[in-house]
């Protein structure tokens, strides 16, 4: 049947391969081509594998027992009788005990391939050690003494048991892959339908906000310039009014003096001159008002423009920071199956509250049974992420490996093991950071109840911050580590009398 160590050339792909096991027809193929041909045969609805090389040589196998004028197609070939049988003539082989040991196979045109070339006996046994087919005479001659020799049917049954196990394993793996493909498609659909639209909307919102800020800056600069111009015009008008007053007064004196010079009555001239002499001389001797050169205060304009520009830059940076947070924000919901019975989860899976009495919830392997904790549905194993929470009461917010224990007391509390990092606010509003049972007291306190978590999985960075006024982040504590497993967010709530609760804020 061919040497196992001999090199062969695959007739389909022309690659050289070794350890060939020829097919019953005698042809040999490399494993990949054989698997492809076998899969193609199954895909075409064929009941049995057909050698791709001798496919065209195979014709209709006819029954050897049918009359020549009524010949029927064979459905089986008996290797003991070395004949092919149609459906009708096959019945004795199926029904009579005398034929029970006969080996039936798919119809064959050439039985010689199933016969020992040395003894001309049909192969009925298989040597497991040499991995070759043998006939009864080969066994009698002692060629396979001390070897494990089994009947072909026995080997077939054993191999089918093993193949069934492999088939079930492959079937299970196919299901797992199909689930992964479906999850991947859902994730892609979510990214396409939600995230992309949201991201574009966020960018457009930022663009609109920046355009608004640019418009405000331009309007402010125009208004500042116009106001300065208006003020300069008012100053010029005031100076002009004073100059006109001097002109009118001087013209009045000029006319009075002219009239006195034309006066013919000396007594009237002397009286008039002496009466107005002191005031007239004072008015004539007073210096004329000389207005400054009209100009605009460019320095003040520039100072005002610079102030407006700083406001514009500050607002632009704020928009960019908001956009960055929005783009980094990852979807987050609570896993009801993991929630302790003392935690009440909202319908939208975005809020959790500590209650006094245990809720009626079904048993679940993922459920925390000692600490009143819950984890997120989403699991993260790469990337940069950002979330904002509204927190109240006695709470514990953690980044934890999804594999954290859920049962019993020891090693399952957030921050009390090597696989979780948490920030806790106690009943006295004091903050503490926890990891591997080590507690770090924080000197700062939160002035509000708006908390932010920034996570960089690849760099192993976890940053807890308070979201202050104007959306500014006030850092509270930072953990640096190296993640080796997928992580999720965890929430612990204590003291129901403090109305302890956490709400995941949705970035829009």
UniProtKB/TrEMBL annotation:
Listed Pfam families: PRY, SPRY, zf-B_box, zf-RING_UBOX
Matches recorded under InterPro entries: B30.2/SPRY, B30.2/SPRY_sf, Butyrophylin_SPRY, ConA-like_dom_sf, E3_ubiq-ligase_TRIM/RNF, PRY, SPRY_dom, Znf-RING_euk
Keywords: Coiled coil, Immunity, Innate immunity, Metal-binding, Zinc, Zinc-finger
Stretches of the chain forming a coiled coil according to its record: 160-187
Lineage: Eukaryota, Metazoa, Chordata, Craniata, Vertebrata
UniProt protein name: Tripartite motif-containing protein 16-like
Domain RING-type stretches: 10-54
B box-type domain location: 111-152
UniProt superkingdom: Eukaryota
Any one of the GO BP annotations: innate immune response
GO cellular component, one term: cytoplasm
Domain B30.2/SPRY: 312-508
PANTHER family the UniProt entry points to: B-BOX DOMAIN CONTAINING (PTHR25465), E3 UBIQUITIN_ISG15 LIGASE TRIM25 ISOFORM X1 (PTHR25465:SF73)
Organism: Culter alburnus (Topmouth culter)
């Amino acid at each position: 049947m061919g040497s196992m160590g001999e090199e062969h050339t695959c007739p389909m792909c022309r690659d050289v391969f070794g350890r060939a096991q020829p097919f019953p027809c005698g042809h040999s193929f490399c494993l990949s081509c054989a698997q492809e041909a076998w899969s193609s045969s199954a895909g075409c609805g064929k009941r049995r594998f057909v050698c791709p090389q001798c496919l065209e040589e195979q014709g209709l196998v006819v029954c050897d027992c049918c009359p020549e004028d009524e010949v029927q197609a064979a459905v089986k070939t008996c290797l003991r009788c070395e004949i092919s049988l149609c459906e009708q003539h096959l019945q004795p082989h199926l029904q009579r005990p005398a034929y029970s040991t006969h080996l039936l196979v798919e119809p064959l045109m050439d039985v010689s391939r199933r016969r020992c070339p040395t003894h001309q006996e049909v192969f009925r046994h298989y040597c497991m050690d040499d991995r070759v087919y043998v006939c009864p005479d080969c066994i009698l001659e002692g060629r396979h003494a001390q070897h494990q020799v089994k009947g072909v049917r026995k080997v077939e049954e054993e191999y089918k048991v093993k193949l069934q196990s492999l088939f079930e394993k492959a079937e299970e793996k196919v299901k797992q892959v199909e689930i992964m493909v479906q999850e991947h498609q859902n994730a892609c659909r979510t990214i396409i339908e939600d995230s992309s639209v949201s991201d574009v909307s966020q960018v457009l919102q930022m663009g609109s906000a920046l355009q608004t800020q640019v418009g405000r800056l331009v309007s402010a600069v125009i208004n500042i310039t116009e106001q300065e111009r208006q003020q300069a015009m008012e100053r010029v008008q005031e100076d002009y009014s004073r100059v006109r007053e001097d002109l009118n007064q001087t013209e009045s004196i000029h006319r009075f003096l002219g009239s006195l010079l034309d006066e013919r009555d000396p007594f009237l001239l002397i009286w008039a001159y002496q009466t107005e002499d002191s005031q007239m001389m004072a008015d004539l001797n007073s210096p004329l008002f000389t207005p400054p050169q009209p100009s605009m205060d460019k320095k003040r304009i520039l100072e005002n423009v610079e102030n407006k520009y700083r406001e514009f830059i500050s607002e632009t940076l704020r928009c960019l920071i908001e956009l960055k947070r929005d783009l980094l924000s990852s979807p987050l919901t609570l896993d009801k199956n993991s929630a302790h019975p003392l935690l009440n989860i909202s319908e939208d899976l975005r809020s959790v509250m500590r209650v006094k009495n245990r809720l009626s919830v079904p048993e679940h392997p993922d459920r925390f049974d000692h600490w009143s904790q819950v984890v997120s549905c989403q699991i993260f194993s790469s990337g940069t992420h950002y979330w904002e929470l509204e927190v109240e009461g006695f709470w514990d917010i953690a980044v934890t490996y999804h594999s954290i224990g859920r049962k019993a007391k020891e090693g399952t509390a957030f921050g009390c093991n090597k696989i979780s990092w948490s920030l806790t606010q106690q009943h006295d509003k004091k903050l503490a950071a926890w990891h591997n049972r080590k507690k770090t007291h924080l000197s700062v306190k939160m002035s509000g109840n708006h908390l932010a978590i920034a996570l960089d999985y690849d760099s192993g960075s976890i940053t807890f911050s308070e979201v202050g006024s104007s959306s500014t982040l006030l850092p509270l504590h930072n953990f640096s580590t190296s993640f080796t497993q997928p992580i999720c967010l965890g929430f612990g709530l204590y003291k129901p009398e403090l109305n302890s609760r956490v709400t995941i804020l949705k970035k829009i």
